Each structure stands twice: as C-alpha cells, then as structure tokens.
# Entry
Amino acid sequence: MDAMRALVIEDYQPLRAAVVQALVADGFAVDASGDGEEGAWFARDTTYDVIILDLGLPGLDGLEVLRRLRAQGGQAHVLIVTARDRVEDRCAGLDAGADDYLVKPFAIPELRSRVRALVRRAYQRKDPVIRIGDLELDAGRHTASRAGVAIDLTPREWMLLEFLALRAEEVVTREQIRNHLYEFRSETASNVIDVYIGYLRRKIEREDLPRLLHTRRGHGFVLGLTP
Ligand code: CA
# Structure
C-alpha cells in the first residue's frame, strides 16, 4: 500500500499510543497530539489522509478542531472517537464534517477496519476485493476464493491472510504479524504463527495452481506470485 498520512488527536495517552501503534503497523506515517490547539495546528499545516479525533480535548474541543479544519478547506477523512454517545453528539460531529464516528470503548481491530474503509473511500476504491493472481479476498465480506472456489477460513486465518494480502509481494516478518494481530501476540506458543501459516497453506494452495504463500527462511513470509 502507498504510504499514507494519519493524525491522531487524543489526550488519553494509553489510547493514543495504541491507536498510533495500530496505524503504524498498517503502514501509515503517523503524527499524534494530546492537545486540541496543537492538533488543529498539525491538521492545518499538513495534508492527512485520515484524522482520528477525540472530542474531549484540552486546549480546544474536538468539534472546534473539526470545524476549523473544514472551514480551511481541509479534506482529510475524519473519524471521531469519543465517549460521548448521545445521538445529538453524533449528529453534531457528523454535521461538523466528520466522516465516521466510533464510541469508546472500542476495539482496535474495529478502528482499523473503519480507517481502512475511510481510506478506500478517499481513493475511490469502492471495490473491497484484493486480488493476487487467482486468489481473491473480499475485505468487506471477509471471504476468500482461489480460482473461483470459495475457501473456508476461520476468523484468525482470515486476519492473517488479509494482513499478508495487504502487503502482497513483500516480506512480512513474524514480528510484524505479532505486533499487528494481537490475537497472535496473546498466544504463548512461539510457533503459533507458523502453525497458522501451515493452515493457510493447506487451504489456499492447490497442486494444479502456482504457489502463492512462500517462506523466506530467516525473514518471514511472502504472499504473492513471485516465487
Ligand atoms: Ca479525551
């Protein structure tokens, strides 16, 4: 994926750090601020693809940050994350020019999905299908098929396959997988990633078709057409 820029404006440091880490793992160049004034200043001076915006902020309220951004013609896709979940709060956010709204507490994977959806929108990629040769992943429906034959995947297998597919033809290390997919981080067995790579291989590889999931010894894995 292209390097995209994201700005995180959130004053609760642990959440800010978790969101930044997730976006960095997804390949974003990320700036972050815990202050509304400073965040608004960042947003004005740099072109971001996505802005993750808290509403309750010191310095300047998140809604005001958003109004200023839109008043200055800023086109960034804005995802509001806030504990304010009354209907009027959501409406105020969307009316001020937000693209989406996520109520705290939320799960990091949901935030990542929402951000991906915004990015697809940003690039007019309405088609959520990722294609690697004859392998197709539908990121919207979480389904996959090879040469037209549906592949039955568990949620964890799907996450791993999607992670590899978004980085097709690149080496993905075990460390990246562990850092990115917390489902694998929580596992104590050190070989859990290799075990799941094995499951994926059995499901996506076919004797009559070119191999797609390659192991780079000492490095990691590559999903792609290049052997
Ligand atoms: Ca806050």
Notes: Residues 11-12, 54, 56-57 surround calcium ion (CB under 6 Å). The domain at 129-223 is CATH 1.10.10.10 (Arc Repressor Mutant, subunit A). The CA atoms of residues 137 and 144 lie 4 Å apart.
